[in-house]
């Protein structure tokens, strides 16, 4: 297929990016990872141009931050207008209407037929931290349950809640106390001989036993669950599991917190992924695509829970900044006017069909899964052993990058390729990106040097 959007002028990274990489190595610590070794010059929609003039299709979306795409014109206008009026007063110093407008809209959109309130912060980790604070304040309990393979951030509390040791936790202890990890379903890696139904029943039994063997439910303030695990490998739980956890939370007075940092704002075909499971959370954490690239996060929840914290006990200098609030309000307008929930479902269908086609050609694709436009494939050495193949994923991501497609990996074993393209991507750009994905598989598995590296 002739490339209409991707343009490869130099090797990637090109000479200008190579020069900047040397400066980056000198002045920026290696602990901050970089998936792509090029430097961006400009980006619009789903296309990114680097400083060497190479144009790439973005299937990474700044790790799920750009559901409405790069520099959406309406977001740009809103930010320019806001910056010309005032940039910052600190909501805890002098308030502004956009904060109230955003809180009102999100409370109306969030699932649950009850009064809600919302508070805003800066990052996803901050949102989760504050959800924990609010839950502990309201319940007067200390315990927090998260799940195996879950990711919630890099601060002390959220790093403790996160399941993957390397690179997120190794050498950074001691960790926060009273945090417990419960089992989370992973149907693809279920024990041999168990049907999906039997396996899901087993995981529910394990969760119930967990509250007997590991920690007393009366001491737990909140259960924090990603409706679809992001960093964990885009693992979608069974609806019955999520509903049973909710029932157990209600039974014991435990708050159910849906971590929607990566799953929210139309990524899965609904404003909040938890809506797919017929569950009403007590608290919802949000960030990433909420601000279209402007830092902002939040917690939405039952009014009586959110109001448990006293004056000055939550918030921060930049929390819910004017620029972030204006960006988030515009994102909500775009999702509605451009029907991005429906668009996410269509993108997911197209991408999943393509990945299933690839699975028919390549035995290394062990599983294709996802929800809406949050879809992925798990790469293994072979389908019989299901041995994770992290090395192959690295080669595929590299081959894709050389051909003009930005990809991300994920998963506890680092062997999952995840797709997080902007929901505003055109059908033609989506098709071209998926074609490059196929070419990258051919280059790695068929050792086909003739597979083009851009045209």
TrEMBL record:
Its cofactor is pyridoxal 5'-phosphate. Pathway: Amino-acid degradation; 4-aminobutanoate degradation. Transmembrane segments: none annotated. Keywords: Aminotransferase, Pyridoxal phosphate, Transferase. One of its GO terms (molecular function) is 4-aminobutyrate:2-oxoglutarate transaminase activity. Its EC number is 2.6.1.19, 2.6.1.22. It is an enzyme of class 2 (transferase). It catalyses: (S)-3-amino-2-methylpropanoate + 2-oxoglutarate = 2-methyl-3-oxopropanoate + L-glutamate; 4-aminobutanoate + 2-oxoglutarate = succinate semialdehyde + L-glutamate. Belongs to the class-III pyridoxal-phosphate-dependent aminotransferase family. This is (S)-3-amino-2-methylpropionate transaminase.
């Amino acid at each position: 297929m002739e490339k209409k959007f991707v343009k490869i002028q130099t090797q990637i990274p090109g000479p200008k990016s190579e020069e900047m990489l040397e400066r980056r190595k000198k002045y920026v610590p290696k602990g901050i990872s970089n998936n792509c070794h090029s430097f961006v010059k400009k980006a619009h929609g789903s296309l990114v141009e680097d400083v060497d003039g190479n144009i790439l299709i973005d299937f990474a979306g700044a790790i799920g931050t750009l559901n409405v795409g790069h520099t959406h014109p309406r977001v740009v206008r809103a930010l320019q207008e806001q910056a010309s009026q005032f940039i910052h007063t600190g909501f805890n110093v002098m308030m502004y209407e956009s904060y109230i407008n955003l809180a009102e809209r999100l409370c109306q959109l969030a699932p649950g037929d009850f009064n809600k309130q919302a508070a805003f912060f800066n990052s996803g980790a901050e949102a989760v931290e504050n959800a924990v604070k609010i839950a502990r304040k309201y319940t007067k309990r200390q315990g927090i349950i998260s799940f195996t393979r879950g990711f919630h951030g890099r601060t002390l509390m959220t790093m403790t809640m996160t399941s993957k040791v390397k690179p997120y936790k190794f050498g950074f202890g001691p960790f926060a106390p009273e945090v417990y990890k419960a089992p989370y379903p992973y149907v693809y890696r279920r024990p041999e001989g168990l049907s999906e139904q039997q396996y899901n029943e087993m995981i529910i039994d394990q969760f119930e036993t967990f509250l007997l063997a590991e920690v007393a439910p009366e001491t737990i303030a909140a259960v924090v669950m990603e409706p679809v695990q992001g960093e964990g490998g885009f693992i979608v739980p069974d609806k019955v599991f999520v509903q049973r956890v909710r029932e157990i939370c209600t039974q014991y007075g435990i708050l159910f917190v849906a971590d929607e940092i990566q799953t929210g704002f139309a990524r899965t075909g609904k404003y909040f992924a938890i809506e797919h499971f017929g569950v009403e959370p007590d608290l919802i954490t949000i960030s990433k695509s909420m601000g279209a690239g402007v830092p902002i996060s939040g917690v939405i929840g039952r009014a009586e829970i959110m109001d448990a914290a006293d004056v000055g006990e939550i918030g921060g200098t930049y929390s819910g900044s004017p620029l972030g609030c204006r960006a988030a309000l515009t994102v909500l307008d775009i999702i509605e006017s451009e029907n991005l929930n429906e668009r996410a479902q269509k993108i997911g269908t197209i991408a999943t069909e393509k990945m299933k086609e690839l699975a028919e050609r390549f035995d290394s694709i062990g599983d294709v899964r996802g929800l809406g436009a949050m879809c992925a494939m798990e790469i293994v050495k072979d389908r019989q052993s299901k041995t994770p193949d992290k090395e192959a994923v690295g080669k595929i991501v590299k081959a894709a990058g050389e051909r003009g497609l930005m990809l991300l990996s994920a998963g506890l074993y680092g062997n999952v390729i995840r797709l997080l393209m902007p929901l505003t991507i055109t059908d033609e750009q989506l098709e071209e990106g998926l074609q490059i994905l196929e070419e990258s598989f051919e280059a790695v598995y068929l050792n086909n040097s003739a597979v083009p590296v851009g045209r």
